[in-house]
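User: Good morning. I'm curious how alpha-D-galactopyranose would be positioned relative to this chain. Could you predict the structure with it bound?
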Amino acid sequence: MNVQQLKQQFTEKYGDNSAEIRVFNAPGRVNLIGEHIDYNGGYVLPAALEFGTTLIIRERQDDEIHFYSTNLTYEAVIKVGDIGKDKSGEWIDYPVGVMVEIIKAGTNITKGYDLMFHGEIPNGAGLSSSASIEVVTAYALLTLEEGKVDTVEISLLSQRAENQYVGVNSGIMDQFAVANGAEDQAILLMCDTLEYKHVSFRTGDYKLIIGNTNKRRGLVDSAYNERRQQCDQSLAILKEQLPSLSYLAELTPAQYSELESTLGDDILKKRTKHVVEENARVLASVDALSSGDLTAFGELMNASHDSLRDLYEVSCEELDVMVEEARKIPGTLGSRMTGAGFGGCTVSLVHENDVDRFVQEVGAAYKERTGLTGEFYVCGVGDGVKELKGE
Ligand code: GLA
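Assistant: Good morning! Here's the predicted structure, ligand included:
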C-alpha cells in the first residue's frame, strides 16, 4: 500500500479533523554478521531493510490515544493519563512501552493521538518488527511533542521499552539498526560504547536474499536468556584472571586461548569461543567489504553460521537445511542464520544471475526436507527511521 492509500484508510478509520496527518517510517533490519554479540559488548554489522513499519499519526482534540493496525485485529483506546497503567499482552505494549519511556526521559505526552500502524515485516521472523514499531513510535511522538529527536537516544529508549515494559531482555542492536540505518550502508556498531560508523554495502552483481524458514521461534526467549546467563557466568570466571575485563567480546582470540582452560565447563568454553571469534569475524568482514572482497565476506558469513550452530547452539534443523541448500547454489558466496536463532530467517549473498535458481531450488529442497514452505525476499539496504514528507 502506498502512502496515499494508507492516508485514505486512516481517514476512513478515524474520520476528518483539522490537524495534519503525519507519516513516519522505520525499517526492519537484517544482521549481516556479529550474532549474539551485542549483549557481550562487541561489534555487530546490521543493516536496515527497505521494508518496515509505517505509522500514520494525527493529533486529537481530547486526551485519548487510539491504536489501530492494518495487520492485526487488536485495537485499543487509552487515556494519556493512563499510559503504562495496564499491560495488554498485545502488540500495543510496544508503542505504549515507548510512551512510558518518553515520559520518563522528560518529554510529556500532552495530547491525544490517532495512530495507525502498517507493518510489512513478517512477525516473529527475526527481522525486528518489534524494534521497528518501537522506533517509529518514539521518532514520531518526539517529533510531534517537540522533544529531542536523536536517533541514538531513540534506540536506547526503545530498547528500555522492550526490556522493561514488554519484558524481553534483548540487546541494543535491533533498535540501533532501525534508528540509524542508511541506504546502501551497513552499520558497524560497537555495542559497549555505541560508537558507530556506516560501512558501504554496495554489492554490485550480488544480492542479499533473506530466507524465512517460517519456523515459529518458540524457544527463543528462554534460550536467549539462558545464553546471556552463560556469558555472564563465563565473564565472572574470566574476570578472576583478568579483572579489567568488562565484556566477553573484549577478549582477543589469543587471550581467549590462554584463558580457556580456566572456564572448566565445556558449554561455557563453546559459548565464549563463539563470542570471541564472531567479534573478530565482524572486524574482518569490514576489511573484506572495504576492499570489495565479497568472497572473503561470504566465507566469514559461512563461518558465523557454523559457529552459531556448533558452538553457540542457537540454530535449528530448519535454519541448517536452508543454509545447506543455499550453499549448493554456485552463485552463493555465503549463507547464515540471522537474528536470535531457533527459527526465523537466513541471509545469503548470491550472484544476481543465480537469484531465480536460488529461490526455486532452495525453496523446493527446503520444502521437501522440512515440510515447511520457505519465503524469500531479495532486498536492498534501506534508510533508518524518518518522516515521509510530501507524499
Ligand atoms: C535478537 C536480539 C538482539 C541480538 C540478536 C542476536 O535479535 O533482539 O539484541 O542479541 O538477537 O544477535
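Residues 31, 35-36, 38-39, 170-171, 173-174, 339-340 surround alpha-D-galactopyranose (CB under 6 Å). The chain is about 40% helix and 20% strand.
Let me know if you'd like a different ligand tried.
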